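Thread: "does anyone have the structure for this chain?"

Original post by V.I.:
We have the sequence but no experimental structure in hand. Need at least a predicted one for the grant figures.
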Amino acid sequence: MTWETHPVTLDRFEDFADVINPNRRATHCWCLSHRLRPKDIEELGGGDREQAMRTLCARKHPPGVVTYLDGVPVGWCNIGPRAEIPRLAGSKLIRPVDDVAVWSIVCVVVRSGHRKQGVTRPLIEGAVAYAASRGAPAVEAHPVDPPGRMDTTMAFVGTRSMFARAGFRVIGTTDAVASKLPRLVMRRDLTSSSNP
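Reply from O.Q.:
Generated one for you, tokens below.
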């Protein structure tokens, strides 16, 4: 098995879409709902969510990475500098822990038909490597810690154990919830030699 992870530039847009919206539904989230405000979507895509996402993919920091297993796109991670994610930068529920210019993981998606096959570990590692390559000092995520199986409608936030396996540690809590569970602040520092 060969894993590869790449930023979702315009030439990889269809691979990204195959993971998150294989039927290309216009009303689908297009992984924007937790990243942009409605006015940002209107500004970037004239109200067209797909076009707004394509516009983001053409920017200096594409809005995430796609992970491939043997050349097939199987996972997507929405990640970027917190300051460039309007919904997060302005959030009253998920406030910054400190003044570190972190990159934030907004969501993690494994393509239907490829779940429970170990995709999340290379996907998160690939997202962290992408952030590191762009000079990020640290990466944060805001998962939950479910006592059992996670509600699939909110699974995109990830779980504490998923991020702990990728070297993240809990550094705080938020006032946000997913599936009625509190969302944590987990961080992986990229400037320390102690990272896995």
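V.I.: this helps a lot. The helical segments are 13-20, 38-45, 49-57, 86-89, 120-133, 160-165.
O.Q.: and The first strand starts at residue 3 and ends at 7.
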